[in-house]
Predict the 3D structure of the following.
Amino acid sequence: MAETLELYGLLSDLVEAALNGLNLWPALLAGVIAALLIWLPVAARLLIALCLTLVFSSLWPLLYGLPPLATDFGEPEYSIQFALMALVAIGPVWLTEALGVRRLTQRKPRTSCIS
């Protein structure tokens, strides 16, 4: 029972540390950019959103004059942050598919009434 409580305490500390350092702006920017690429398949846009999230979150400190961050998935806090940022980045792509934006922007073939 004591080990379970220790594990719960450790996991809650990791989640709290991840939420304290979470910046969702890079993920939202990457998701919007990927959502605008409507001519690509959905899987490609999701992959682009995740890759751009990784790049933007690494380079985001440059806006404040700080050195870029090296991504370290060995740190559990960063893994939790990336999972949350991935959900945010996937949101705009999913929204464009749910609203049928691709269907609205497709050109309809011209047909002739004369046969």
User: Anything to note?
Assistant: Helices lie at 2-20, 25-35, 42-59, 76-99, 101-105.
